[in-house]
Amino acid sequence: SYEVTQPPSVSVSPGQTASITCSGEKLGDKYASWYQLKPGQSPVLVIYQDSKRPSGIPERFSGSNSGNTATLTISGTQAMDEADYYCQAWDSSTVVFGGGTKLTVL
Amino acid sequence: QVQLQESGPGLVNPSETLSLTCAVSGYSISSGYYWGWIRQPPGKGLEWIGSIHHSGGTYYNPSLKSRVTISVDTSKNQFSLKLTSVTAADTAVYYCARQYASGMSGDYWGQGTLVTVSS
Q1: pLDDT means over runs of 10, chain B (119 residues)
Q2: Helix/strand/coil (H, E, C) string of chain A?
């Protein structure tokens, strides 16, 4: 079965750029999505179809996907961006989530 | 504004069937998209359970397929989840979501409902 892998944690200083990766075989041939999940809240879609931002998502969130790796980039990271982030792909009629990355802003 | 709301028992006995419904407002299920169920066990990550198209076509997580049924009721604008033979491992927050057909990303999510499997 298809799998995507994320680093368990990423740390970033306020105002700096955070990059969270998602790796999977030929992931670049599939669409990647990214979700932000804060405690007690529902997941929020921040990137879909590799690089598109839903309405209401700040421009500091961007995405790319090529080869075996999709990347979520947060420019000018703010304290409010501290959360768990999950990548998601669609392969062989199956939705696959990564294990999640805890982003710490310190 | 599209809104989704999960409902169902918060406590289910082991070996019994978990049943949840997701009521959709602000958008007609018959108009398109896929409609899915996703869960998050305590302290763990997101797990996709399955998705259904308004026409009734379904996709299921292979690891749960033998126990899962997702159905849609367009007249009530809602869709439902049934998970049979539950165990403590099925304890989780269950979310329903609207999903794009291309890439199956979920753009609108319900608030989630905690279901505990325990006697």
Answers
A1: 97 98 97 96 97 92 97 96 98 97 93 97
A2: CCCCECCCEEEECCCCCEEEEEECCCHHHCCEEEEEECCCCCCEEEEECCCECCCCCCCCEEEEEECCEEEEEECCCCHHHCEEEEEEEEECCEEEECCCEEEEEC
pLDDT at A9: 98
Cα–Cα distance for residue pair B38/B93, rounded to 1 Å: 9
Which parts of chain A have pLDDT scores under 70?
none
B113 in reach of chain A (CB within 8 A): no
d(CA A32, CA A49) in angstroms, rounded, equals 6
CA distance A41 to A11: 21
8 Å CB contact of B106 and A90:
no
**Residue closest to A45 by CA, chosen among A65, B43, A54:** A54
What residues 48-107 of chain B have any CB closer than 8 A to a CB of chain A? 48, 51, 59, 61-62, 95, 97, 99-100, 102-107
